[in-house]
Amino acid sequence: MKYQNIVTKDKVQCKICPRNCILSEGQRGFCKVRRNVKNNIILTSYGYNTGLAIDPVEKKPLYQFYPGTAVLSFGTTGCNMGCKFCQNWKTTKTDIDISFLNRTSPSEIVEIAKKYNCKSVAFTYNDPIIFFEYALDTAKLCRQNGIKTIAVTSGFINKEPAAEFFSGMDAANIDLKGFSEEFYRKNCLAKLQPVLETIKYACNETDCHVELTTMLAEGENDSDEMIKRQCKWIVENLGDCVPLHFSAFFPNYKFSDRRPTAFSTLLKARQIALNTGLKYVYTGNLSSVQTSSTYCKNCSQPVIIRDGYKILKYNLFNGNCVFCNTKCDGEF
In this structure, are residues 140 and 170 in contact, taking their beta carbons and an 8 Å threshold? Predict the structure, then answer.
C-alpha cells in the first residue's frame, strides 16, 4: 500500500488519514479495517459490503448533480471518525465478521448499476476514505463504463491520498460536522482543520462537484455564532455557490438521550446561511417544498421544485434558468 511509512522492523504507519495510526504486526487501525500484515497496510474489507441499494441521488444528499437520477449506493464497515451521534453506528462502530457480509467485486457493482440504469455509483453509509482501494478500483471501472462516481465522506483524509481519491470522484458530499475544533475533538474524536483543507482542495483544485452537509444537534453545533462563522468561511474560501444542506439529528448511539432536532432549528440555520450570501441552501430529512427547492441565483425563481427527494417541477433548460437564462451551478 503506497500510503504508509515503515517505522521499525515490526511497525508500520498508515498515512491515509490524519490519525496516522502506527500499527504493530496484526494490529488494526482506529477504523477497524486497515491492518498491518507483514509490514504492509491491508484493507481487510476489500470487496465486502453491507448491502446495495438504489436511491435517488438527492438522498446522498446531492441536489445539483444530475437531479432526479438513480444512484447505486453501497458501503462497508468501520470508520476513521469517532462521532458520538453516528446514525450508522451498527456498521461503523461495531466489530463485524466480514464473512457474513455480501461480497461484490468492482466489476459486479458496475454490472448491477448498468442493469438498473443507475446514472451513478455512490460510496456511502460508511466513509469511503477507509475503503480507499475498493472505492477507487470501482470508480475506475465506473468511468470506463460511463457511470458517474459519488463519495459521501467526512473529508478526514491526508493531502496526498486526497489528490488520488478526488481524482476518481465526479461528485462528493462532504460532512462539515460543526465549526469548532472543540466540537470535533469532543464529539468526533477528530480535528476540524484537515477537513477544511480537504474541502478547499476538492472545491478549488479538482473537477469534482462538491456539496456540503451539516447535521445540527441542538446545544452542540447549532449556535447562531457557529453557523455564521461556518457560512462566512464557506463564502470566503469556496465562493457563494457551493450547495449547503442542514440536516436534522435523531437520537442515536452515544447521543441516544438527546432530543431530535426541531425543524425550526434547520430553518434558522438556513436563513443565516442565506443572509451570509450563500445561493443554494437546503434542509434535509426535515424539509418543505420551499427549503428543498433550488432557486436561480440571479432572478430567485425556483428552477427545481422539490418535495423532499421528489422533483415536482423542473425549470432548467440545458442547465440554465428558463426565466432569465442564468446557468445553475452543478451538473444537469
Answer: no
